[in-house]
Batch of 2 targets.
Target 1
Amino acid sequence: MPRYLRNLIIALIVLAVLYGLDFVFQARMISPYFIRILMLSGIAITLAVSLNLINGFTGQFSIGHAGFMAVGAYSSAYFSVTYGANLAATLGGGKLAWAICLAAATIIGAAFAGLAGLVVGVPSLRLKGDYLAIVTLGFGQIIVVFLNNIEVVGGARGYSGIPIVQSFFWIFLIAVLTIVVVYNIVHSAFGRALIAIREDELAAEAMGVNTTRYKVMAFVISSAMAGAGGVLLAHFDGYLNPKSFEFIKSFEILIMVILGGLGSIVGSVLGAILLTVLPEALRGFAEYRMVIYSLLLIILMITRPQGLLGSTAAFRGWRGRRRKKSRTEAEEITAEDTRDSASVDKATLGERQSETSLREKDSKNK
Amino acid sequence: MSTFLQQLINGISLGAIYSLIALGYTMVYGVLKLINFAHGDVYMVGAFMGYYLANGLGARGAQAIGQSADGLIARGLLGSGAMEPSLITALVVMLLAMAICAALGVIIERFAYRPVRKYSRLTALITAIGVSLLLENGGQVVFGADPKFFPELFKKRNIDLFGGASINSADIIVLVIAIALMIGLQLVVFRTKTGRAMRAVSFNLQSAKLMGINTDRIIMFTFALGSALAAAAGVLVAIRIPRIDPLMGILVGLKAFVAAVLGGIGNIPGAVLGGLLIGITETMVVGYLSPTYKDAVAFAILILILLFRPSGLLGSVAQEKV
């Protein structure tokens, strides 16, 4: 069977399953509360998987994801409020008409968020590590400040009156699309370039990878998908507030990705579902919820920094497997390399080993 | 003219506080290359420690007769307290808060950052975010989520200056204490043996270790010093603007970090300069443009500085070696 035919069949099956589930949920056979959590998980999956593309696969630490989400949410909401009703009416006004409207809104939201990603990414992706993190954080804050001051979209009071188009089908279609896109990117030449950048930017550049260009492309794609997630959220409750896009939201998405494991799509999906369902399960301890989260995050970082399912070794191939044997030693060396900007030549490995053993002796003496 | 002078005075006073916090960021970044996201929250804890200490010291007499907690707070220092509200009380409160936060900084370093030091810097950064979230949410549980009002530690009054501007006595005290602390820090870093070790560790951790410096202890000391300065900033802010709440550290912390980057991260005079610049710009924007854009100013400055001079105003350009 030709490849495209197989893919087409799989796509049709997925569509049919999603549509069937949508139909079942419409018939109110399952409690609306459960469906609501399911849909919120779907939105969270979109956000987490898209953030994983830039944080996990490209290794660029962005913590302003909520900002792009806000751009997508607000631009699409503005579109729906001003043109949505008219457009739906001209298209017949039925359920299908609204679905087309939502599709248009999603495209618009994703386009604007992608544009914002381009504007932020081009200058800031020349920076590395911590600086990029801070710039993206700062950008997210600036977006929130501006949203608070734009009266057309409600300012600090929030934006209400957005047509509510809750659709299980649509939310999960976007989530599946995000997963497929990220999966395909990661398993293409483009993705290999991204992973090369993550592993060693300098080496990637030496191998002829145009690092800035690839980083910006990944960033724009990731932002556009975050924007799509924002669109879904805007049309989910019909109300938006700038407060809900502050960096706490960015951190929340980040925790989903890290919990699941950087560079693991399945992990991100799992993290997204877990962190959407867990708060509901912990309702009784609402006050301590965030305390538990943050403790969990610290403990996770100390005991399993690669997350639940993350294994960067899978991408390292034979080199990673060989390294695994002397893992602590290898990790120590890479950790020192990254910490020390005036890095010592790797040929002095022997010296380092002896130094490590010195340190061990030192700790024994204590 | 008088408005300008007034804004300048307010800006310098605010900037001095940003500088104090920025110093902690810059020192920790200097030795560990870690953005200590929790630093802004240590500042918050400092303010709260000041709050409880001030009430505790002031109401020791009242406590003996077994009054309710509300009574204690209401009486505060001005009530039938054991200590009269004075500059001395303010200083005692500040020093105690600094000591407590220094201990907090050491605990954070020991139990959260040291275990992840052997992993990548990203892991450390995420841990820092985790500690920050823990302090914020833990603060909301322990201190209560609603804002508290810091007792007046000494009588504030306005002093008129030439040109129609006036300066609050609290602002003068904030400035004097901030400058004293910065001079103290300068002396510690450049005139003591520990300070020399700190500079060595910040220059190159591996070599410092090879030269027999106990780097763990120096890193711990750096955290203690930075956290103490943050606590001092917390108490000073609470003296100026008495409203404190568990989330007060987030934005101030971020702005102070921006100040550190602006001045050149890892550079101590740079942090002071950056803090003052951010403080003055912010008050000028509030005074002449619009208060609603206040919080965007610092980040706009940050983005500009990173685009045009990533090493900061006073920082030296680091060459990337392979």
Note: Chain B has 13 helices and four strands.
Target 2
Amino acid sequence: MHQTGDKLIKWLLMALAFTALTSLLLIAIFIFKEGVPFIARVGFKDFLLSSDWQPQAGHFGIYPMIVASLLVTLGAMLVGAPLGIACAVFLNEFVPKHVTRIIKPTIELLAGIPSVVYGFIGVVVVAPLIRSQFGGPGLSMLCASLILGVMVLPTIISISTDVLASVPNAFREGALALGATRWQSVHMVILKAGRSGIVAAVILGMGRAIGETMAVIMVAGNTPQIPHSVLDSVCTLTAKIAIEMGSATGAHRQALFAIGVVLFIMIMMFNSIAMMAIKKRFAGK
Amino acid sequence: MTDAVKIANRNFSVFYGATQALRGITLDVPAHRILGIIGPAGSGKTALLRAMNRLNDLNPDCRVEGQILLDGVDIYQPDFDAVRLRKRVGMVFALPVPLPLSLFDNIAYGLRLSGIRARSRLNALVERGLQAAFLWDEVKDRLHTSAMRLSGGQQQRLCLARVLAMEPEVILLDEPCSGLDPISTARIEEALIALKSKYTIVLVTNNTKQAARVADTTAFLLQGDLVEVGPTSLIFTAPKDQKTNDYVSGRFG
């Protein structure tokens, strides 16, 4: 009797686990089925490397959006990575354990704030500040990078602290015993962990940044152009899909799916690089 | 010089939180000798060793009482610089912990920390450290490969070399051979005996035979108390205390 019960639960759990896997697979298949033939028809070059996006006239160049997504992500990393890593080092090396136990969950709560709220803060606080201080429209690449930079903090901090905590104390003591100061020994620990673990944390943060949509639509300005300065308004890949999906039909709609394919591949690439970095870390022991 | 005291523990106690790891230890470490510290697990050997270069500072639960005098100066007085202390009193750990750098940089790391930058000087000191740890001949052709690729015994001699390159006055070793095979162990012991003319050495070991082989003086700790200390030959043949006798003859521990 017990055995049948056990088996039943095992099958049930397996079915549930496969549901998640299957939906991922179905989504991937669906996007690729809609998008890939379209890219083939328009031509790889005309789709990825042309700046001409006029769906009504049959022009589907997404180059400015790719550039915008990459630049905004890069900007977010310039803001988020140093802050996140510094915060992780501080939490792990300089703060008593019981304080960390309070602060770390609080930081992870940041991940629970809806992205529309980040966008709202961007529109109401950050964009006007940029406009008055530096000029330009305010809603800009800079604004998007700043907001995204804060949004990726939980990812980067959380993974980095785990990585730093897993570095054996022996490395700290080894450095100290050679006459390193507290800070110099921390540098050694970061070096040990950072070669792969912290790199992985930053790359996962990048995946998060490039996929973010709502906050970016609200603060980036959404002008499809190749930016000439950080104060220019830009339109990312995600923003393009979200803004136009409601009204798009036919080839236009397929084009948006094709953008989805490009995003999908970019994020997969980021995640695979992060996975490899993490794996290397464990193999390296 | 022969009978000079390098480090003097004076009624020294260590507490970790509420538990007392060492009870009022008074123990002299003679200069240019090897002092062996033996005792079963939990006897406070490591606590005593780590107290002598203040590595316990890292542990916020650790508290000490009493004095440890290095050349007559209390290393626990508030304005004593722990970083400089650790340059004078080097330490080799139970598990070899090469830093994630090349062989060369592992040894140069401490040297650079103490301000030595000139390449030629670094080269010379790195070679001298490796020579003194009897490792030079095995690795001289691959100084710039990762230290993680060495065997366990080689890693431990690298850790010894890295301490030696700093030219400390005292070398503390915490069960340096616990993870090593007999041949690697023999090489380390050989190195230690060769080194004692220049350095003062404190060797904590779980292996009583190792103390018998290399130590000039041996101290026996049991549950935080110093039971007995004396010339190694006497400790192993005619100990004054029954507990010492039981331990060195293998009746417990």
Note: The longest helix of chain A spans residues 2-42.
